Amino acid sequence: MIAVTRDGQIMSIAQPDTRQFLSFTTNLAYARDLITAGNSLQGLQPGALDINDLYRAAWVQGVSAMDHWLHEELFRRVAEIAADTGSSELPVQLSRFELPLSVIEDVRTGDQDLGDVVVAAVRAKWAFAPLHNPKKITEAYRLVTDEDLWSKGAQQINEWHRHRTNYSAQSLKQQFSAIIQRRNLIAHYADLEDGDLKRRRPITEAEASDALNWLERVALAFAAVLG
Fold first, then answer.
1. Does the first or last residue of the chain, that is N or C, have fewer Cβ atoms within 10 Å of its Cβ?
2. How many domains does the chain have?
């Protein structure tokens, strides 16, 4: 991952050394390979293939990679917090997380471990919830942090760019939501123009690459905020 400094140079941003983030970058690399394949075929124009579909597939793959990472990172962090029995303070929403009375009784009698049941309960609630909507991401991640994830994430991106950018929580959400909205049009509506059954929205290599770069940037910012 790179960012541009105020003198026009590029700097490297360290990536989290976790299995979850490695999986994320591996999935993003697959999406970028699709873009590379599309670019290499541009001059050939094979009749049986719409090259732009490779860019659309890369876009969908990138969003899927982000969704998968957000889930796995959430579960990893809940497990770490739940296992830290010496922690004096829990995130507010995790401290209020509801468990069935039968489970609480099993914990009291020693039949189940508190950390295990908390992780299992969080997984049950969030495993199949799509983490595409900024509000849903905020709700889920309140289980592991009391920080304003979008606001702090925007500040982190501005710092990486030496404040040549001025993103806020709202503008970062808008940028992210635009990527998700285009993914939904591709995945659910074949990217067709409104009211047209054949003509699809234009898409370029640059647009697809920029979407993947933004997803990576947001993930890195969130990881930095979470610590």
1. C
2. 1
Domain for residue 199, yes or no? Answer: yes
Q: Are 202 and 121 in contact (CB under 8 A)?
A: no
pLDDT per position as a tens digit, 173-191: 999 999 999 999 999 999 9
Q: pTM of the entire structure? A: 0.89
10 part of a folded domain: no
| Residue the block writes with tokens 């732009």 | 52
| Token pair 């991401």: residue | 137
Instruction: Give me 166's structure tokens.
Output: 């001025």
4: phi then psi, degrees, rounded to nearest 5: -95, 130
CB 157 within 8 A of CB 221: yes
Half-sphere exposure (CA, 13 Å, Cβ side) for 10? 4
* pLDDT digit string, tens, across residues 43-77: 776 666 788 999 999 999 999 999 999 999 999 99
